[in-house]
Amino acid sequence: MAPRRDFYEVLGVSRNADADEIQRAYRKLVRAYHPDVNKDPVAEDRFKEISEAYSVLSDPETRRRYDAFGHDFRQVPPDVDPAQWARSRAGARAGGGRRSARAEDIGFGGGEDIGIDLDDLLGGMFGGRGRRRWGPMPGADQEAEITVTVEEAYNGGRRTLTLPGGRQVDVTIPKGVTNGQRIRLAGQGGQGSEGANRGDLYLIVQIADHPRYRVEGRDIHAFLPLAPWEAALGATISLDTPGGEAKLKVPPGTSSGRRLRLRGRGLPARRGESGDFYAEVRIMVPPRLTDEERRLFEQLAAASTFDPRRRS
Q: How many CB atoms are closer than 10 A to CB 18?
């Protein structure tokens, strides 16, 4: 049988890792190896190994005993001195494998070799050699995608989401969510074993394509169609945004491609600055001219010296 791996090695953390590092490592690993999401035959054994390591290292007292006694920490009586235990282990290794305990080595006093095999002693005291209990294991954290409209991202909202397997969850979409943001639903992840808590469900936000708006971070972009005279003379335009109608001032002499900004009218932020709304100008001409429009355009063409192709 292969030797059991060190619990710190199992989680991929150093021996001086703090509680937050241990929890982050555990959550990352269970997302990868939980049998509900990973059907590889070895994933279940790996998941059990990860869960046992986390259950030990996440509890300060069991972690202290594990650091002192290694994988034997469950079998060592509470009053055994770690230094004495280390000496007895070293003596056992030097003696060829079976561990003959001295009374003082396991805290019973005296100094003579009492001739008791330590594996037999501890196996009898704690339920048999090689026996171990996994105990309750918390459920794995899970991830799923949720697609929201630009309007939902701006205003927030409520949604009932159907997960794989038919389970439904109610979701509150926070105001101002962005692409890739994670919404945490506590206790809605994988089922725990033996009454342990469920994991958490993380919903990865995807903002759907929109016929008028394009979202980049917290900024919202849209095209602004203008008539030639509005662009040339300037105008004040009513503009639809996800937050409602806004007034936008178009400066005289505005050309196609110019971006006009409405500060703070992009996606709102709970902390920090909200995004901006950018209107990109597109100058449009009538598809069919009336006789009067044609006469006026011809008059303008004759009077104007403007050449848009002239290099400045």
A: 9
pTM over 0.90: no
Question: Would you tell me which CATH number, out of the four given (1.10.287.110, 2.40.160.50, 1.10.10.60, 3.40.50.970), belongs to the domain 7-125?
Answer: 1.10.287.110
Contact status, residue 274 vs residue 218, Cβ threshold 8 Å: yes
**Contact indicator for 13, 21 with CB cutoff of 8 Å:** yes
Question: 261-280 pLDDT, tens per residue?
Answer: 999 999 999 888 899 999 99
Q: What's the residue count for the chain?
A: 312
Nearest-angstrom CA–CA distance, 149 and 213 = 10
Q: How many CB atoms lie within 10 A of CB 125?
A: 10
Segment holding 44, helix H or strand E:
helix 43-57
Distances (CA, A) of 194 to 130, 136, 139, 154: 22, 5, 10, 42
Asked whether the beta carbons of 282 and 224 are under 8 A apart, the reply is yes
Q: What is the pLDDT of residues 240-256, one digit of tens each?
A: 999 999 999 999 999 99
Topology of domain 214-303, per CATH? HSP40/DNAj peptide-binding domain (2.60.260)
Q: How is the chain split into domains, by residue range?
A: 7-125, 142-207, 214-303
The 10s digit of each residue's pLDDT in 75-108 is: 777 667 777 666 666 665 555 544 444 444 444 4
Domain 142-207 has CATH 2.60.260.20: yes
